[in-house]
Amino acid sequence: MNYVVTRHLGALEWLTDKIQGCFFHLDHLHSVDFLFPGDVVVGTLPINVVAEINARGANYYHLSIELPYELRGQELSAEQLKQLNAQLVKYFASRGMKSNGTKRYVKEI
Fold first, then answer.
1. How far is CA 95 from the centre of its chain?
2. Which H or E run contains 81?
3. How many CA atoms are closer than 13 Å to the CA of 14, on its beta-carbon side?
4. pTM, rounded to two decimals
5. Do residues 50 and 93 make contact, with C-beta atoms less than 8 angstroms apart?
6. Mean pLDDT of the chain
7. Which end of the chain has fewer CB within 10 Å, C or N?
8. What is the DSSP string of 23-58?
9. What pLDDT, in 10s, does the model give residues 39-85?
10. Where are the domains of the chain?
11. Which residues are CB-contacts of 44 (< 8 A; sequence separation ≥ 6)?
């Protein structure tokens, strides 16, 4: 199954033209428990959620844009996303673990 996670109508419109086949639209991803290996999730989700998606065997594609400072905080239209050369980029994330299975923490410098 394909899932698009966004509350932004311009992004949804832009993605509708980019994604082949059917997809379910979600305003928010409350849980990843319904995902299965091979599912596809598209959005602009935090890295910890991407790790959870990937841990279930699903694929994650990020809506990536170089957003100028003056456009931050604004709702963007599909046309603006196109002008900003928006792209879908596949990402994989996992939680860091040491070889013995304990969590690895980054040392502050």
1. 16
2. helix 78-83
3. 26
4. 0.83
5. yes
6. 89
7. C
8. -EEES----STT--TT-EEEE---HHHHHHHHHTT-
9. 999 999 999 999 999 999 999 999 999 988 998 989 999 999 999 99
10. 2-91
11. 6, 11, 62, 63
Which residues contact residue 73 at a Cβ distance below 8 angstroms, ignoring those fewer than 6 apart?
A: none
60: which residues sit within 8 A by CB, 6+ positions away?
40, 41, 42, 43, 45, 50, 53, 54, 90, 91, 92, 93
CA distances from 31 to 28, 38, 64, 106 (A): 9, 17, 22, 27
Q: How far apart are CA 49 and CA 53, in angstroms?
A: 6
Please give the Cα distance from 109 to 94 (Å, whole number): 23
Separation between Cα atoms, residue 7 and residue 9, nearest integer Å: 6
- Residue holding tokens 């428990």? 33
